[in-house]
Amino acid sequence: MTDSRINRLNPLPALIFSSRWLQLPLYLGLIVAQGVYVFQFVRELIHLVSDAANLTEQSIMLIVLGLIDVVMISNLLVMVIVGGYETFVSRLRLEGHPDQPEWLSHVNASVLKVKLAMAIIGISSIHLLKTFIGAGNLGLPLCGTPQAFAAAQAAAAATANGVANATAKCSELTEQGVMWQALIHFLFIVSAVGIAWTDKLMSAHKPAKPGH
């Protein structure tokens, strides 16, 4: 009965319904973007392995956090590509496939929004952790400023005069920037809680299906 109803769609409803396929190039573009992230991951991994003997513990930690960040963004892309295509374009028909994602069996627009919000919070957490690792340089001249250039010149002059450990350091962070990043992360958490709470309220008011 359902098939016959679909076959009897009028031209205008059929055109409107078929317009969902315009999203296909978008999801294919996200697959290309994921390939770029794979290239970025491999490049950073080669850099980590080849320069491991010359890197400090903090530098290694920052590179590893960068790799984790790439992985989490890739996971987010998979969620958007697979879940979005399944929800808004066409069924993937993965029932019975051994690699079918567990969450895909009950995915809908609301579930997808909550999962995307949680993934964004995870990515924001990695960036915030990287910021906290570099927060030890707060108070030093900001890199690229005249003050940092003057400090580098002073350190070079001290080294020329035989002063040991005269290395110039600068900070890539500002106290205001750290504060805003922490605030934005907090807003992400509040937004995710709001989305989950709204979804819960909407689910509670949905009429029960017959037989349940």
From TrEMBL:
Q: Which UniProt keywords apply?
A: Cell membrane, Membrane, Transmembrane, Transmembrane helix
**Where is the protein localized?**
Cell membrane
One GO cellular component this record assigns the protein to is:
plasma membrane
Q: Which InterPro entries match?
A: UPF0114, UPF0114_bac
Q: Name one Pfam family in it.
A: UPF0114
Q: Where are the transmembrane segments?
A: 21-40, 60-85, 178-197
* Membrane topology value: Multi-pass membrane protein
Family, as annotated? Belongs to the UPF0114 family.
Please identify the protein, giving its name as recorded: UPF0114 protein LEN_4576
What is the source species? Lysobacter enzymogenes
